[in-house]
Amino acid sequence: MSSSRPSAVLPLLLLLSFLFTGCSSLHVATDWDRDVDFAAYRTFEFAASPEDEKTAPAVSNRVFLDKRIRRAVTAKLEPEGLRPVEAGQGDLIVVYWLHLRDVVDVYSYGYYPGGASYARYKEGTLVLDFVDRKLDEVVWRGWAEGIRAEVRHSEDQMFDIVRKILHDFPPLPGK
Fold it and tell me: What distance in Å separates the CA atoms of residue 98 and residue 127, rounded to the nearest whole number?
């Protein structure tokens, strides 16, 4: 009798392990203008984040999310020698947005009737653009795909995502 119990628990454990590992897949990438001397930048400011019609209704805590993104970017840029300034004064203008889409994951765990379940959630991409004020051009872009939108992104979660995006900022000359 106890030998059948472990076999019934195994599919549930596999499902749970898949759910937790599937939620943590974050793809991060960057690109930049190789002709730009990033060492010349000393200041930055934030542009108003553009409202994405797919983001605004889905992220009910937009004001808190904006603050978390701004604090995370500032915390990463200040140690690199860039200081935040008022609008209209920065060498770089930081523009960011979060684009979300609906996702449905279907999980099957055997041939039993009703042996499938699903999860619905919003998943998205956070994009950070750095615009050179004088050139009026994007000189650096970083993004993270696979962000699972939650009602409450904690401060630590957002810092971790932004830290991963800005890991190699500023790019080294000749890289």
Answer: 6
